[in-house]
Design a protein that fits this description.
7-stranded mixed sheet; binds S-adenosylmethionine; alpha/beta
């Protein structure tokens, strides 16, 4: 399954109320959103018809997140009729719903950028948010170099390093590799906006993991040993639980953990 088909179907099953996209390019992933959205790209070249209430931010993600109220666009105003027209919670101005339900991190394909994008996105998440990172399963060592050789054609860079780093530093997060084409996606569940472990450890993590080319992608990632089938994941019971967001964090995340364990066969 191509990543855009996966994303399209993820929107349908998760039913996010808000969407954040880092790295938009020609707008093919952004075109899948139907809800209040923010898209961040220093040089967007949108050629696709869009269908959402959008703030397009023409800057790097670091600059976007350093702003005073980066997620302001996702917040409802005080006028319930205007909120209804824009597909926002009617009284969201009073309930403070500026959280990102679904985020797609697909900006600069260097490990430290993806790590910062995740750290910053988590600050604006809730327990039921889902973060999708693209290009996490390179197909060969050449695709994973930090110095891009050809300006067009597949390039994952070394963002795959986020997978072992999250496993080592944030065992509280629930993650799954997904066997999408061409270069795999990685989903993170159970966001905790108060957690600062990655932010506090950022310098040491970067020092350990940012290494000159060539990169040595672990065989298990190249072979997608732990990656689940996109079809099976999309059909799991995870999504209705997250979409309803009624059962509370502990029960919801128990379902996510149990369903992913069943998909992986252990
Ligand atoms: C692979 S493309 C995004 C593709 C798009 N998400 C899709 O699926 O159709 C990556 C984009 O990231 C943007 N980008 C590069 N550096 C960035 C940064 N520091 N912050 C945000 N976006 C960045 C590039 O301009 C490029 O358009």
């Amino acid at each position: 399954m191509h990543r855009h088909e996966f994303l399209q179907r993820l929107h349908a099953v998760l039913k996010p109320r808000t969407y954040l996209e880092i790295g938009t390019n020609d707008g093919r992933s952004l075109a899948l959103s139907r809800v209040p959205s923010i898209a961040v790209d220093p040089s967007p070249k949108i050629r696709t018809k869009l269908h959402c209430d959008l703030q397009l931010v023409t800057s790097t993600s670091d600059s976007f997140f350093s702003g005073r109220q980066p997620m302001g666009h996702l917040m409802s105003g005080r006028n319930p009729l205007r909120n209804a027209r824009r597909g926002r919670p009617l009284f969201g101005a009073y309930t403070g719903s500026n959280r990102v339900d679904l985020a797609f991190i697909d900006g600069m394909h260097l490990f430290e950028y993806a790590l910062r994008d995740f750290i910053n996105t988590e600050r604006f998440s809730s327990w039921s948010s889902v973060v999708v990172l693209d290009d996490m399963l390179p197909r060969n060592q050449a695709e994973a170099v930090r110095e891009r050789v050809t300006p067009s054609g597949p390039w994952t860079g070394d963002v795959y390093k986020f997978i072992p780093v999250v496993a080592a530093h944030r065992p509280d997060l629930i993650t799954v590799q997904v066997d999408t084409q061409p270069t795999g996606v990685f989903l993170v569940f159970g966001m905790d906006p108060a957690n600062t472990v990655l932010k506090d450890g950022y310098d040491a993590i970067v020092q350990e993991w940012v290494t000159p080319d060539p990169q040595k992608v672990p065989e298990a990632l190249l072979e997608r040993v732990e990656a689940v089938e996109p079809e099976a994941l999309l059909g799991s019971r995870i999504w209705p639980v997250l979409a309803r967001r009624r059962r509370g964090r502990a029960a919801g995340l128990r379902t996510v953990r149990g369903e992913l364990a069943a998909l992986r066969g252990y």
